[in-house]
Amino acid sequence: MNPAALSDFRRQALPVREALRPGSITLGGISYDGALSIRSEPITNEDGGQRMGDVLTFRLPKSRLATQPAERATLTSQGKTWIINTVGGKELWAAEWIIKAIQ
């Protein structure tokens, strides 16, 4: 697949993801709609051990949030507070932010 086709595919996939997994987060006092999933995954503790914990993954088009969310910032979703662990989509060509947060 050439780069233009791949970019077009990614743009078209955004509304499909939102339709299949609708959800919202509140970040900095502003509510954003996007594609949301929460699942249990192994999380590495600071001491190197692992535990099972809930991980929130939220996909948000860059057209709705122009600046990259800060890692370690807090957000709320489904009445719970989450801490942003990683942010994907930092590349200039990326059409969305992929926010992963833990409780």
Structural descriptors:
six-stranded antiparallel beta barrel; alpha+beta; 6 strands
How are the secondary structure elements laid out?
Layout: H1 3-20, E1 22-27, E2 30-44, E3 50-61, E4 74-77, E5 80-88, E6 96-102
Antiparallel strand pairs: 1-2, 1-4, 2-3, 3-6, 4-5, 5-6
Please provide a written account of the structure.
The chain is an alpha+beta fold and 103 residues long. The protein contains 1 helix and 6 strands, in the order αββββββ. A 6-stranded antiparallel beta barrel has the order 1-2-3-6-5-4. Strand 1 and strand 2 form a beta hairpin. The longest helix has 18 residues, at 3-20. The protein is globular, with a radius of gyration of 14 Å. The termini are far apart. The mean pLDDT is 89.
- Classify the secondary structure makeup into a structural class: alpha+beta
Q: What summary fits the major beta sheet?
A: 6 strands, antiparallel, barrel
Beta strands, count: 6
Percent of residues in helices comes to: 10-25%
Indicate the proportion of strand residues: over 45%
- Largest beta sheet: what is the strand line-up? 1-2-3-6-5-4
